[in-house]
């Protein structure tokens, strides 16, 4: 009888111990389940990054101010930044003018921004100006470019297609470097011939050829054509639009406005010997 009692107690102890072991084993999978959500969260992070990248490429005009139509902007027309004739502005004078724009709070427009300002009648800032250079002289890179960078100003250079890399003109490398720093390169045709003197097919070819060169070279949609010597006719405007340009600039004096026509915009010629005070008055008048 005593042996039977001992045996029963022994069996009970074994059963209890086995139950504890099974209970402990049953709790182990719970630790694995806690790690599962970490894997499922990774795709959500990737989707957010893609969305932010797309949005950052769009031109945000939500903070721009509405202005009375039609909007007017001064498009400054420079050529060479050097000395010698009435088309050349010395570097010292150019620096003083750029400093004035910076110190007086002017916003310098890109071609894309200028198009929105003129067609949608809103501005990124009350004081705006569009700086342009004709012909693509090398001194635009040597002398003007460092000054523009110093004052954090944007500008546009109208380059002649067949003069790329030629003596006293910009090279591909120089244009690409400036383009990365906010200096837009746009079209001044391929041959720099007076367009009204060409046949219809010659005009269209010159306008199209130039646009294709800058589109491919700078991986962009070239949007502005600058007419050589500022001359054009009705066919020129038609072919400019047909070639894919959004705007055309002339040498006709005054501030630019959409009332003039988007392919016949006026500009303000910059000449040597202009005082900083006179420069300031010209720019201010062009905003009103």
UniProtKB/TrEMBL annotation:
Stored InterPro entries: Glyco_hydro/deAcase_b/a-brl, NODB_dom, Polysacch_Deacetylase
Keywords: Signal
Keyword Signal carried by entry: yes
Annotated ranges, domain NodB homology: 127-288
Subcellular location field: Secreted
PANTHER family on file: POLY-BETA-1,6-N-ACETYL-D-GLUCOSAMINE N-DEACETYLASE, PTHR34216
Official protein name in the record: Polysaccharide deacetylase family protein
Organism lineage string: Bacteria, Bacillati, Bacillota, Bacilli, Bacillales
């Amino acid at each position: 009888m005593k042996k039977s009692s001992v045996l029963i107690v022994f069996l009970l102890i074994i059963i209890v111990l086995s139950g504890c072991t099974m209970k402990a084993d049953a709790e182990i999978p719970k630790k694995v389940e806690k790690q599962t959500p970490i894997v499922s969260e990774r795709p959500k992070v990737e989707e957010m990054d893609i969305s932010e990248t797309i949005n950052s490429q769009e031109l945000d005009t939500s903070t721009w101010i509405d202005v009375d139509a039609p909007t007017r902007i001064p498009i400054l027309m420079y050529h060479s930044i050097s000395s010698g004739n009435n088309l050349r502005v010395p570097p010292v004078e150019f620096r003083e003018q750029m400093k004035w724009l910076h110190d007086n709070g002017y916003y310098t427009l890109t071609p894309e921004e200028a198009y929105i300002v003129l067609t949608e009648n809103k501005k990124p800032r009350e004081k705006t100006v569009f700086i342009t250079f004709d012909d693509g002289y090398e001194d635009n890179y040597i002398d003007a470019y460092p000054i523009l960078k110093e004052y954090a100003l944007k500008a546009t250079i109208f380059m002649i297609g067949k003069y790329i890399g030629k003596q006293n003109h910009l090279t591909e490398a120089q244009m690409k470097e400036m383009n990365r720093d906010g200096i837009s390169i746009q079209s001044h045709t391929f041959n720099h011939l007076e367009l009204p003197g060409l046949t219809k097919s010659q005009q269209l070819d010159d306008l199209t050829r130039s646009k294709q060169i800058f589109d491919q070279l700078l991986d962009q949609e070239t949007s502005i054509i600058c007419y050589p010597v500022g001359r054009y006719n009705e066919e020129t405007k038609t072919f400019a639009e047909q070639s894919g340009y959004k705007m055309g600039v002339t040498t006709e004096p005054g501030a630019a406005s959409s009332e003039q026509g988007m392919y016949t915009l006026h500009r303000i010629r910059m000449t040597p010997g202009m005082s900083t005070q006179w420069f300031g008055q010209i720019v201010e008048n062009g905003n009103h």
